[in-house]
Amino acid sequence: MDLLTGLYPVSRETVEALNYPQLAGEEERSKGAIDFSRFFRAAFWLAGQRCRACSDKVMVWAQLVCCFETYGMSAEVMQAQRSAFASSEASTDTVHLYRDAITLCNCMVDCHGVNPRMEYLYRVKAIEVTMQNRKIARRKERMKDLKVLREIDEAWQTEVSTIPSGEFPEVPEEALLSEKHSRLYLALLILCLEAPLAKSTSRFSDASEKSGPMKVLLQWFAWQQKKPAGGKEKSTRWTVSDLSLQNLTAFLHEKILPDFGLDKERESQNEEAEGEGEKGKKTSRLLKDSKEMRFQYPYTCAQCGKKSVKAKHCRVCLLISYCSKECQRAHWTKKSGDEGEREGEGDREGKEGCESENCDSRGESEGVVCSKPEDCESTGHVGWCYTHRVRCPLLKKRVTDVILSDNFTFDAPMRRKIIQQSIEETPEENEGHSDPAASLAAGLEGVTLQDNAAPDGAREEDPGSGSAALASSDSV
Q1: What pLDDT score does 130 carry?
Q2: Smallest Cα–Cα separation from 132: which of 101, 98, 103?
Q3: Residues near 442 by Cβ (< 8 Å), separated by ≥ 6?
Q4: How far is CA 269 from CA 200, 283, 285, 315, 404, in A?
Q5: Which comes out higher in pLDDT, residue 385 or 183?
Q6: Which residues, in sequence order, are CB contacts of 264 under 8 Å at separation 6+?
């Protein structure tokens, strides 16, 4: 989870391969993409574990969902948004998420330090996915909910109309199109809730008091009424009272957005960003291809710190990159212990490194590469160099045979304790103490492999494959 939700650069080819893997010997990719509905619901559970305040839960949930959407295709993500909380089995989670979304908190902006427009975007996103559930769509407290929705709409309109003061970060470009969609959805939801009310009780009966999106929608409905029926197909004249709350999202995407050109705007951006991607298969986010990613996030040499588009990677852990073989040798000789044996392992594999074109885009952002563990204390993260030093001994001791076994469970308290030991016990500061690999091995003492897991030394495997799997299961 920590790796998926980290701010790592992801290329378009990576997302396409993840959703449509092509196995060896197959000419066509498998047709089934990833179903993200379970991830969206699991994000709500995780948000509940991380925070208690309702505004914090919605914020964390939406941020996790946005991270998951990065790894999905457009059609599948849209379907997941409609089905994640729609079933009766998910009604309990749906009610809790909806209540958190419509509960306003005066301190929500101060406690998050984010742009209020993003706060409103996340709240409406939660309201939209929960409105797919029949239990929410048939709530009796409509007047109370309508009051909250109006307050959000007013505050959102004020923030959009206000000139940025620099107090909060600007809205990301990727979120601007989502903001247009969410504001239209919120306005449509308010109009639908107001429709059964008498004109005298409707606060927004005066058109001058309506927000921009609401005025646009009213103009669209008026245009629909005057639209002449042409051709063989009969033109349906829609009214607000004809709409169902559960179908507002589908109606917005199928009827309203095409007339405003917002769907074409997103499609054109996708085509421009994706180039020669497969027709009809668009990523949910506007992602760059691998070549653009390499230029935007060049590899950083672990030895000299030089950034380069082309780099060689350590074939043992696959985490460290070098600008040249000289830097690779110099960095390896810095390590304490059996450097010669490790270099021999690389020689036996016959792999001194690989060009970056044949690797996934694993560019590190500035400031991530730390030459010493002390550097990590100020930046708040574990440096790649030190991570390299921690993980290579693990591979040598074949600890991955235990971790990657289907019969082994790594509970969270044990995982945190061992990882913290590995970080604190550095060779420079704790001479004579056990190294990180020994700490982890000690933590796994007593754990035995089952019949379906290969025993120590029973099989020969590429050290790089084990490290890559370990990297995906470890959040250091």
Answers
A1: 94
A2: 98
A3: 434
A4: 44, 11, 10, 37, 41
A5: 183
A6: 258
| Distances in whole angstroms, Cα of residue 75 to Cα of each of 35, 281, 282 | 10, 8, 8
Query: DSSP secondary-structure letter at 254?
Result: I
Within 314-375, strands assigned E span 321-322
With a threshold of 0.85, does the pTM exceed it? no
Q: Domain boundaries in the chain?
A: 12-224+239-290, 297-473
Encoded tokens for 125? 């996103």
Per-residue pLDDT band at 83 (split at 50, 70, 90): very high
For residue 105, the SS3 value is coil
Dihedrals φ, ψ of 368, to 5°?
-80, -35
In this structure, are residues 440 and 418 in contact, taking their beta carbons and an 8 Å threshold?
Answer: yes
Interval 343-352 mean pLDDT: 36
pLDDT in tens, 192-223: 988 877 554 545 445 567 888 898 888 888 88
Q: Is the dihedral of CA 74, 48, 179, 67 positive or negative?
A: negative
